[in-house]
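Below is one such record:
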Amino acid sequence: MRTATFRAKQLRANQTVAEKRLWRALRGRQLHGYRFTRQYPIDEYVVDFCCREERLIIEVDGGQHDINRDYDEDRTKHLESRGYTVLRFWNTEVLGNLDGALEAVASHLEFRRQQDRPSL
């Protein structure tokens, strides 16, 4: 039986073109200083990208995810039950509009930051 950690290592070595492109934009705290990890294991799942500090997961989906909708829904429910928010982008979105995807992630992070501030 393969562990999630072993699977994460395999996935890091075999990223899709869209995942590679998004990773180049997220790595090294390039997005507003947030630290992202790629192919991060959470329980039995491996998520594409995770900002552990903000409990945000980014998934980049290809055509196979259209077929595996039930699995993806169950997976998302499990991750949300652990306190994570899951943002999903299609490969074509990342490849065709990387800036738009990054803007959506940044907007979500800023919204969460605003919610966490105590009201006066």
In short: DSSP finds six helices and four strands in the chain. The domain at 4-116 is CATH 3.40.960.10 (Endonuclease; Chain A). The two ends are 52 Å apart (CA to CA).
